[in-house]
Design goal:
Number of helices of chain A: 23
Order of helices and strands of chain A: HHHHHHHHHHEEEHHHHHHHHHHHHH
Structural class of chain A: mainly alpha
Distance between the termini of chain A: 61 Å
Strand order of the largest sheet of chain A: 1-3-2
Number of strands of chain A: 3
CATH architecture of the largest domain in chain A: Orthogonal Bundle
Largest sheet of chain A: 3 strands, mixed
Helix content of chain A: 55-70%
Largest interface: A-B, 37 and 38 residues
Low-confidence stretches of chain A: none
Oligomer: homodimer
Strand content of chain A: under 5%
Chain lengths: 501, 501
């Protein structure tokens, strides 16, 4: 028992309460709050953010942290406490160099910028969002600059916030490998995929029935409705207050069957992770997922690796056909599986197939690098965006709504976040490879029995929360650090088989 | 400009932020949160409550408050600032004598007790809720005892929290008058009302259509959807974060047309009040309604005085008939008006007619007096409850779910709250009497033009927030303090005319 750590507890608990309140406000803002609430509520959230910071960043905590980092003190700490101290040190690094009034101003700005983004996306007016994006970027640059201390690259600082294992020096070769292997594969697959008639997906699908089926799917993969709720928002997301309150959203389109279904499986993957974090860790600094990359590995494992497999749909497809007999009774399971895996260049990341998905991420990554290396102005962003889509995917967005304005993350200042999607996808492939060696995974899916899969992930990953990093997890679960070969092999194998290349 | 007041501002703003966060958690708990979230979330809310208290109750604020209460300082204050200082002094009185750890424990207990109430009401098991009710009552007694300081009656302390103008010495004669005048009237009316066939109200009413019509009604009376949202909960309520974010809930029953309609008009009345508070007052200590009594006066003015009048329904009834032609096409407007004003003893307060309504309140008031004067045990409450229903209303609840367990308020520790419902009803009648002298109110209703009504209430009451108390408002608007005669006369006139007595 560490007396020093005990002294730290009240500060940690209080800051967690403020953080949880902020999460609830964010959830509420995205799902419920009336339109005109934003400005007044932003003040409240600003104060909570301010208090969160004051509660963690102060002389008392600083002294306790310093003491706890000493070798002698470390001996008295449990593994969880050590992880919390490490996480606190990270938070200190993130926050300490930012003046509190700037941090507060930023937290007041973000929800306003988000509102502007919603409207400007709706109106297809990038110029309305641009001044707010500029403010957000300027502040993020400033913050990253403070933290870089002239030593690190500011963009690496931001990348590190989402996954400490993936800096530019890790991502650059990873992404170059993807570009060299996947762009040609996409071309071959794309040519063959063109022959797949996917028009069934864009017929009229009653939204109430979609909601009902999505709710079913969510429960089917393991979302626990006693510990979670589903709502609607412009962009699907997952938000946890703690491991007994994990919320996901979905978005439903009458003329698109797949969109809501795969979003809900994706978000359920995130939610299952958070719900399975051990009770002893929840509401601590290591009470959430290990990193954005690990989180995405779980959501994309459920969405793509499991969710787009034939085995997954074998026990389910009849149910879906029964819900929409007019649209689907002539579509065989085999046809449906080819449809949900149809690979074709498209504008919207969240609607992209597995094969082209990473190219969306790479585009965002390369533009973010340009932004943080001052190689592009805010005004030029739509142009650069469209050029890169033409270059990598062979298509040019028809407008900014489906182009640079498509995603919510920049409006919240989440830069350095997107690469996690690609890392997660690759990590998922690596975990999948080792799971297949340990269990009859495909048989379980065919039987509609997802429990052993969920239990394996819970016991080897989820329950540990953020007490390990991505590479430590991969080492422990798969006996090997991050290796992107699994990902490239997974895609090659899957599409070779599916398209009989 | 008062420098002393300026020094107070940061404390007030911070406490408001904590308070607003607590409101959001309460809203969320009632409308959204998953079932198992309660225990973990309670800790977070407990910490926020604790911080709220620490932020208001401390030596710095105490000194500033004392100074601001001096005559010399008062001269420098605006009217709003004076009202805020007065309200702060009230908050001081309420909180200062309660040890912070007890206050925190109470705030942690309340949401748990509420969950237990929900379940125990569902299961009709008072005994499951009783231990939590006991804990809540014991803590409330202790708190009221601290504050009474041996001088006041503890129940008066609690009454004062909801309306400083109504102590037992005001309420006892008011309620005696009601009992002597209304119980006989209810008997006469009840006998005649029996002949009104209201079976149409209990046919099958599609819930989606109810929601649609209730939303329409809410907007019709003046709820602004840019500043508010409607959700569902077990018991309808209103909750504001600030004047640009005011939320109401409703509850829909397939076999009851009236219930959801009049609840939504009621809650819209509360919401219109909060939405109309001046921008300069919102998010201050005087930024909400003046008192529970004033609040209820507005909700019940909209629900009953306007909402159950023939003039209100003249431009609306056809729309309702068109929505449910099978059920309503044979029911004339006159029949419908008699139906929505049918007076008959019933178990549930929220479903009660205007005439018997106050008797529900009087029963609750008399039982609360007994509780806080140690004249009844927790175990005996259902028995006492049922006896009083038999005595005043001539009926005995069939079980505890429709009896002592019907309302949520006790589970939140809201004792002393119920009399406000009766006070509000009486205040509404008094305001109605003076409004009729000032505007062609009935003509406005017939024209479907509720704007002048809303503007009158906004300009004479709502915009002032809590800068005046109930009697001050009545004096300013009607030229007379609280006078229950208006209420008795209103009921007598209305029912004499309606039932041709």
């Amino acid at each position: 028992m560490s007396k020093t750590f005990d002294k730290l507890q009240p500060y940690l608990e209080k800051s967690m309460a403020f953080q949880t309140a902020r999460s609830l406000f964010e959830w509420d803002d995205q799902t419920t709050a009336p339109f005109e609430a934003a400005d007044y509520t932003a003040k409240v959230v600003g104060i909570l953010a301010d208090e969160y910071m004051k509660c963690l960043i102060n002389d008392d905590v600083r002294k306790l942290l310093k003491k706890l980092q000493e070798d002698k003190e470390q001996e008295d700490l449990t593994d969880t406490e050590k992880a919390i101290v490490k996480e606190l040190a990270k938070t200190y690094e993130q926050l300490e160099s930012i003046p509190p009034e700037e941090y507060r101003a930023y937290n007041e700005l973000a929800p306003v910028a988000n509102r502007k983004w919603i409207k400007s996306k709706k109106d297809n007016k990038y110029e309305d969002f641009a001044p707010y994006l500029k403010k957000i970027i300027d502040m993020k640059k400033k913050f990253a600059g403070y933290r870089a201390k002239g030593v690190k690259d500011p963009y690496d600082v931001l990348l590190g916030d989402f996954d400490e294992c993936f800096m530019m020096s890790d991502l650059d070769p990873f992404f170059e490998k993807i570009k060299s292997e996947i762009i040609p594969l996409l071309k071959t697959v794309g040519a063959k995929a063109e022959t797949i008639d996917k028009s069934y997906n864009f017929l009229n699908y009653d939204i109430d029935k979609q909601k009902e089926f999505c709710k079913f799917l969510s429960g089917y993969v393991g979302f626990d409705f006693n510990k979670g709720v589903i709502a609607e928002s412009a962009h699907p997301f997952t938000m946890q207050l703690h491991n007994h309150d994990v919320r996901i959203t979905d978005r439903y389109m009458e003329d698109n069957l797949e969109s809501a279904m795969f979003s809900i499986i994706h978000e359920s993957g995130h939610a299952i992770y958070e719900m399975n974090v051990d009770d002893s860790l929840t509401q601590t600094l290591v009470g959430g997922g290990a990193s954005m990359g690990m989180h995405e590995s779980q959501s994309r494992f459920y969405e793509n690796i499991i969710g787009r497999s034939k085995e997954f749909w074998e026990p389910l497809y009849d149910k879906l056909v029964k819900l929409y007999p007019d649209n689907l009774s002539t579509i065989s399971l085999e046809h449906f599986i080819k449809g949900i895996n149809k690979a074709a260049p498209s504008f919207i990341r969240t609607e992209a197939d597995e094969l082209s998905y990473c190219l969306h991420i790479i585009i965002r990554y390369e533009i973010e690098k340009m932004i943080f290396h001052d190689e592009v102005s805010i005004e030029e962003l739509p142009k650069v965006w469209n050029q890169k889509y033409q270059e990598y995917l062979g298509i040019t967005p028809t407008d900014d709504t489906v182009g640079i304005l498509q995603d919510t993350h920049w409006s919240w200042g989440e830069f350095g976040y997107f690469p996690s999607y690609a890392v997660g996808t690759a990590v998922a492939s690596q975990i999948y490879a080792c799971m297949k060696e340990k269990m009859p995974l495909e048989e379980y899916l065919k039987e509609g029995n997802l429990i052993p899969i969920r239990e394996f992930l819970r016991d080897s990953i989820h329950k540990y929360g953020a007490t390990k990093n991505t590479n430590e997890f991969l080492q422990d679960v798969c006996g090997e650090k991050f290796n992107p070969d699994y990902y490239v092999n997974y895609l090659k194998e899957k599409y070779t088989k599916l398209y009989e290349l």
